[in-house]
Every structure is written in C-alpha cells, then in structure tokens.
Amino acid sequence: MAGIESAAVKKIVIACDAGMGSSVMLASTLRKQLKGNGIEVVHSPVDQIPADADVVVTHAGLAARARKSTPEGAVLIPFQVFIGDPAVTKLVNAIKNGGVVGG
Fold first, then answer.
1. Long-range contacts made by residues 5-10, C-beta under 8 angstroms, separation at least 24?
2. Three-state SS annotation for the chain
3. Which residues form the catalytic set?
4. Comparing C-alpha atoms, which of 70, 74, 33 is closest to residue 55?
5. Hey, what CATH class is 10-97 in?
6. pLDDT-derived band of residue 19, with 50, 70 and 90 as boundaries?
7. CB-based contacts of 22: which residues, under 8 Å, 6+ apart?
8. Domain PTS EIIB type-2: where (predicted)?
9. Going by fewer Cβ within 10 Å, which terminus of the chain is more open, N or C?
10. Taking 90 as the threshold, does the pLDDT of residue 22 lie above it?
11. What is the pTM of this model?
12. pLDDT band at 71 (very low <50, low <70, confident <90, very high)
C-alpha cells in the first residue's frame, strides 16, 4: 500500500461496523487534534466509505471489509485500540509535522 503526502490529505474517514460508541469518540478526538489543519474528519459505515476519502481509519478487525470499499489511492490505517493507538498517533503526527501518511 502506498502512502500519501500529509499535505494532500483533505478527508479522513473513521469507518466502523455499528456506527456508535468508540469509533464516534475517535472521530471527535481526531477532529480536535487536527483542528486548524484543513482536514475534514467524518464517521462512516465500513461498507459505505465516501469516494472522496484520502485516509480511512478502521479497527483491525474490520480492515478486510474496509479495503473493499476504500477508494483507489486512499490509505487504509488499521488500529487495535480506539483511544491511544500508536497507528492513530502516527497519523496525527504525520499530518501535524508533515510527511507521509501510511505506506
């Protein structure tokens, strides 16, 4: 999977199965952490990921399903825990500090 330059990231999608609880909290947390970076953070069902997503963040248990609906060219970032996961921290740091997301 190829990465994407952080400057090209305009939309991050948090993809989940049920659409409630922890993934909604993760989306809210990312919105706050990335405020002022010009990035839209949205929440979506894993099988209905928007076509304009640049980065898709989903629980590792849903990654195979998410790959099927992740737009071509978008980066998929699986994580293990909803709050404090190193993969999510790496994403935030790459965007804030410049660099490549995913890959």
1. 5/99, 5/100, 5/101, 6/94, 6/95, 6/97, 6/98, 6/99, 6/100, 6/101, 7/98, 8/54, 9/39, 9/54, 9/55, 9/95, 9/101, 10/38, 10/39, 10/40, 10/52, 10/54
2. CCCEEHHHCCEEEEEECCCCCHHHHHHHHHHHHCCCCCCEEEEEECCCCCCCCCEEEEEHHHHHHHHHHCCCCCEEEEECCCCCCHHHHHHHHHHHHCCEECC
3. 16
4. 74
5. alpha beta
6. low
7. 82, 83
8. 10-100
9. C
10. no
11. 0.93
12. very high
Mean pLDDT over each residue of the chain, to the nearest integer = 91
**1-15 pLDDT, tens per residue?**
578 999 999 999 999
Query: Which residue, chain included where needed, has tokens 């839209």?
Result: 40
